[in-house]
Amino acid sequence: MTKATGRALPLTIATAFLMEGLDSSVVTTALPAIAQDLATSTPALAVTVTAYLISLAVCMPLGGWLASRYGARQVFVAALAVFAVGSLVCGLAPARAVLVLGRIVQGVGGAMMSPVGRAILISSVPKSEYIRAMNYVIIPGLLGPALGPIVGGFLATYASWHWIFLINLPLAVVGIAMSYRFIDDKIMPSDAERGLFDWIGYAYLIVALGVGQAAIEMSGHGAPPLPACAAGLISGFAFRLFFRRYRRTGNGILDLGLLRIRTFRLSVTAGSVARAGLGAVPFLLPLLLQIGFGYDAFHSGLVTFLVAVGAGAIRPLLAYLMRRLGCRRLLLANSLAASVGLLGFLLFREKSSLWLMGPYVFMFGFLRTVQMSTMNALSYTDVEKPDMGAASTIATLAQRLSVGLGVNVAALVLALVSGDKPPGLTAFAVAFSATAVLVLIAGAMFTRLHATDGWQISARAAPEELRKAQPEPVGPTDV
Known about the structure:
Blueprint: H1 8-37, H2 46-70, H3 72-91, H4 96-124, H5 130-158, H6 163-166, H7 168-182, H8 199-220, H9 225-249, H10 262-278, H11 281-292, H12 297-344, H13 354-379, H14 388-418, H15 425-445, H16 455-458
Helix pairs in contact: 1-2, 1-4, 1-5, 1-7, 1-11, 1-12, 2-3, 2-4, 2-8, 2-14, 3-4, 3-7, 5-12, 8-9, 8-14, 10-13, 10-14, 10-15, 11-12, 11-15, 12-13, 12-15, 14-15
């Protein structure tokens, strides 16, 4: 290593992972409080979640290109600063539109913080120390989403919702100061001649996703049908232009040729449907607890936190489950169990005992993580090493967008069923049922997997025709 020694560099990168991870989950628990203060409905504020996720997704392809163009440290520091500006805008937002704008700016910064930070770490740390260094980065990244519901609930209940965004400012200042102190500016230096970026195709993708989001928003909040239909048509046309340009140039911001790999294609398509259903839970559950059952934001966050506890508890067993069942059987069985688990939330009522609800939420965290981790690991089993970066871009983009879509669907259902009134138990029942249907559809799509798919990461025997050609598989990978 150069300037960065010991734990200083990994902890510098960890500030970005902590902020992004915290921000991905801190908002949902505070949505009812924000809605009341801004005089809007809680379903209408779902756009604050989806705007962040979509902005995060569409800006991710920019990170690597900007780092190669202007230098990794400069881009990392700029990303921290942009995220801080977005947080300040959110924290001072007087209206929903300003809050959404701030969330978009946060997404732009967040999209570049993590991938560029990871690239800096890989380039700075000797291979023999990489695992140890990554542990300092991964742990804050995992703690952020886990602590988000508690932090957001506590601040919304006992302080003000504005602080869920303003707490990012000191973290960003510390991260920027540490970046100048511990990140060598010669790590991944700028190269003005390196790479071309398909700005036209990128513009098509932004229009397609942004206008598509607007179409969904208008559909769920009483807008006239004509503008919503027009926005949907514009979004579809932009997607068509994007795919046409890719077919013509063969060199877009996304290497769609990787979708010819069957396991990767199923992980992206079926996985996106499953994530849309499961990704809506962190949005729906806090609203059910607060609006449906009358919990305050803090106690709602404590219950929602049990999803993350369950997720952590199951991780040591994932390798055994993959080895015992294989990816196909595990995904099929867990899709059914997770869909039933989603329907199980309909059984709870305002006076339901926490001694019953808490373990149930904990167990659902098990199921959610089994599905997510298995799909993530399966994505890369048949992808060659030179294509890993391009595959990761597509997979990450699909993951972010599908979670945003799930939140959109849940908010749309709540708005349509409840109308101008706050969502009641009937609206939540329909929303949870819709998410369960999505997970079931994904399970049906996973039937196209073969019994031997994913043998590389499940430590099961390789298919007979590959045993002589392939090296022995390594241990299971939990992505």
